[in-house]
Amino acid sequence: MAISDWPELERPREKLLQLGPASLSDAELLAIFLRTGVRGKSAVDLARELLVRCGSLGALFAAKRTELHELPGMGDAKYSQLQAVLEMARRALAETLRTHDALNSPGAVRDYLRLALAAREHEVFVLVLLDAQNRVLACEELFRGTLTQTSVYPREVVKCALEHNAAAVIFAHNHPSGVAEPSHADQVLTQSLKQALGLVDIKVLDHFIVAGASALSFAERGLI
Hints:
Radius of gyration: 20 Å
Helix content: 40-55%
Structural class: alpha+beta
Strand order of the largest sheet: 2-1-3-4-5
Strand content: 15-25%
């Protein structure tokens, strides 16, 4: 049965308009994005199949171009649309962080970092630089490492913070392993960087570890 033949409140688009996007399942949201299904399958059926094959909505968005080509109904056009959606979300969150106090918008900080780092295959270390009102000045990727580790140099972190005239910073790095728990080395590094930045009167507000859909906050754990 085609979606157009479904009861009105069961059709994803009509359901969204009447009840809001939060009322939709992952498959229903994806069906609106897909717009059409394939022979013998509605857009919702296709969306469900894609989610089963990928494992989650996040995994679908993180899939490489070549991987998407192997999925039914997905090609370069859909890959381009997915990437455009992600980039728009990143930019919208970045705008929020530039105009609001980051400490009062922890969810936006976490969401931005998840979008920026979750799909990275190698470890990267990011420095979020803030002004005296805790608004984001810039977000710089300073170091890139291997699948399991990256080398971070305090001197370069301090240099970057001073160049941006930052009053405070937030650290972030990803764990491609998918485990967001901080290692002993992560904790030692955080304290080392905090001490180095403290010498030039720059505050360290938090350190996030991003792993898949998770983003652990050192501040929430009492590790800062």
